[in-house]
Amino acid sequence: MKVLVAVKRAIDYNVRIQIKSDGSGVVTDGVKHSMNPFDEIAVEQAIRWKEAGVADEVVAVTIGPKASQETLRTALAFGCDRAIHVASDEEIQPLTAARVFKALAEKEEPGVFLMGKQAIDDDNNQTGQMTAALLEWPQATFASEIDMGDGNARVTREIDAGLEVIDVDLPAVITADLRLNEPRYLKLPDIMKAKKKPLDETDLGQLGVEAAAAITVTKTAPPPEREPGVMVESVDDLVGKLKDKGLL
């Protein structure tokens, strides 16, 4: 079985986000980027399947500028067999990404298309669902456990009410949640080997994909600053302050 796994280059989760002075977005120049953490979990799951003999080939795919190849090299260091870079310097929104992934899935014919449930830069949580809809494939989102069967998968999903277990026929789109696994620590020999693995380049035009109509962000603003806390001397003082605020 072939597994396609989508990865995205995003601002590193340890970076403190700064808003541009004109409110047009966040500062990205000179800021550390890395693989979206949920995508890293998806890559780890695909590699575990390969190590267990469930998957024969794992192919990492990404969309973005030249710098996105660093993210693909990271996926190759995890153990992916090859990578596909869909080059674009434009901002890629979920529907455009889904159209690209549909084209790649039709070309590669995987048994499973894995991706993170969302990216930490935009938190849209849309691409997996849109990809499944365009392909007319079953989908299992927010996966915290996946048991592969013969032509199907049993997926435990994290939902608001708890856990939900569903069976989906393959091929299917599955999106990874936080508790699916813990990604491995990359070793230097694996990072060096990744430099020699094949990385193919293409673009939207070659895939026959038309970019979706852009969604315009009118303004970006930081959250309001929290008021400093107040120390109280006794329970009576605490109750009094809560009453003053109308909370009791």
From TrEMBL:
Domain of life (superkingdom): Bacteria
Listed CDD domains: ETF_beta
Keywords of the record: Electron transport, Transport
Signal peptide interval: none
Keyword Coiled coil included in the entry's annotation: no
Coiled-coil ranges from the UniProt annotation: none
Domain Electron transfer flavoprotein alpha/beta-subunit N-terminal stretches: 23-211
Gene3D superfamilies found in the cross-reference section: HUPs
InterPro entries named among the record's database cross-references: ETF_a/b_N, ETF_b, ETF_beta_N, Rossmann-like_a/b/a_fold
Protein family per UniProt: Belongs to the ETF beta-subunit/FixA family.
Biological source species: Spectribacter hydrogenoxidans
PANTHER family, per the entry: ELECTRON TRANSFER FLAVOPROTEIN BETA-SUBUNIT, ELECTRON TRANSFER FLAVOPROTEIN SUBUNIT BETA
Protein name: Electron transfer flavoprotein subunit beta
